[in-house]
Amino acid sequence: MELKQFKIAVLPLRDKLLSYARKLTDDHSDAEDAVQEVMLKLWKLRPKLDEYHSIEALAMTMTHHTCMDILRGKH
Question: Staple partner for 25: which of 15, 30, 39, 64, CB 3.0–4.6 Å?
Answer without folding.
Answer: 30
